[in-house]
């Protein structure tokens, strides 16, 4: 089984279609206690890109969805928590 499928199954999104919406992404960030800036830093992506995802101006890649879900499961591993 490919790594992406194993991770998806582990974080509870296996077999789910449609992708993550901007509103769902914002809820996940809130749950993880992450700002958009903090999430971008934790994921190693540009802040502008994260803003586009949250605003619904760009499609959220599956790998970003999985990474954010992992951050909500393991908040002690993040580097960009809200203060």
Overview of the structural elements:
The structure is a single chain. By secondary structure, the protein is an all-alpha fold. It is 58% helix and 0% strand. It has one domain: lambda repressor-like DNA-binding domains (434 Repressor (Amino-terminal Domain), Orthogonal Bundle). It has 5 helices and no strands.
Helical region count? 5
Fourth CATH level, the homologous superfamily: lambda repressor-like DNA-binding domains
Mean pLDDT: 81
Q: If classified by CATH, what would the architecture be?
A: Orthogonal Bundle
Number of strands: 0
**Main beta sheet:** none
**Overall geometry:** globular
The arrangement of helices and strands along the chain is: HHHHH
Please state the CA-atom Rg, rounded to the nearest Å: 12 Å
Low-confidence stretches: none
CATH topology: 434 Repressor (Amino-terminal Domain)
Distance between the termini: 39 Å
Helix content: 55-70%
| Total individual domains | 1
Quote the beta fraction: under 5%
CATH top level assignment: Mainly Alpha
- By secondary-structure content and strand pairing, the structural class works out as mainly alpha
Quickly describe the structure.
The chain is mainly alpha-helical and 83 residues long. The chain is built from five helices and no strands.
């Amino acid at each position: 089984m490919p790594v992406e499928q194993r991770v998806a199954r582990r974080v509870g999104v296996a077999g789910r279609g449609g992708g993550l919406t901007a509103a769902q992404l914002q809820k996940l960030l809130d749950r993880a206690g992450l700002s958009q800036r903090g999430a971008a830093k934790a994921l190693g992506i540009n802040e502008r890109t994260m803003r586009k995802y949250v605003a619904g101006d760009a499609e959220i890649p599956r790998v970003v969805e999985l990474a954010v879900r992992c951050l909500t499961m393991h908040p002690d591993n993040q580097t960009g928590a809200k203060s």
